[in-house]
Amino acid sequence: MGRSLQKKLNHLFATVTSDQGREYSHEQVADAITEAGWTISASYVWSLRRGRKTNPTLRHLEGLAWFFGVPVAYFSDDAVTNRIDQRLEELKAERARLVELMQGSDVQVMAMRAGELSASRRKLLMEFLDVIYREQQAARDADPRPSSDSVEGSPGGPASTA
């Protein structure tokens, strides 16, 4: 038997986090969903997460699915849930890797310098970086062994290309 709605929703809260890496509050979720056109209260979200409410309307599920960026079937189809959860874990790992990279001084210096460029020069720089990135990915795909110019500690799995 699959996980309950409560467990699925709690997993989304734990996995799909704010830009600061924090869990969204019930108020943030309810406000965003309501602003987008569905009606839901923070206390109802809390009740779903605690298992006190177990039979939400389709409209509630649509709003929650929209907020967390998953299909509505996430809440009812275990195959969809498993597939989405795997992808969310990959994205979470990629996000952690990017945060780690951004904390590196080289990346910060590049970002600061890029921020001082004109819009047209930033576009040119992004195109250049895209070419280098694709070249590195192609080389990595051809030879999965870590290269001497790979980032130390970076994952080489599917999340590194997300």
Give an overview of the whole structure.
This protein has helices at 5-15, 26-35, 42-50, 58-68, 78-102, 105-115, 119-142. With 162 residues, the protein is an all-alpha fold. The protein contains seven helices and no strands. The protein is 62% helix and 0% strand. It has two domains: 5-94, lambda repressor-like DNA-binding domains (434 Repressor (Amino-terminal Domain), Orthogonal Bundle); 104-144 and 158-162, no CATH class. The two termini are 31 Å apart. This is HTH cro/C1-type domain-containing protein. One of its GO terms (molecular function) is DNA binding. Residues 40-75 form the HTH cro/C1-type domain.
In short, what is this structure?
The protein is mainly α. Helices cover 62% and strands 0% of the residues.
DSSP helix count? 7
User: Number of folding domains?
Assistant: 2
Q: Quick one: CATH superfamily of the largest domain?
A: lambda repressor-like DNA-binding domains
Quick one: overall form?
elongated
SSE pattern, N- to C-terminal = HHHHHHH
Helix content, binned percent: 55-70%
Major sheet summary line:
none
CATH class of the largest domain: Mainly Alpha
CATH architecture descriptor text of the largest domain: Orthogonal Bundle
Please state the structural category: mainly alpha
Strand-residue proportion = under 5%
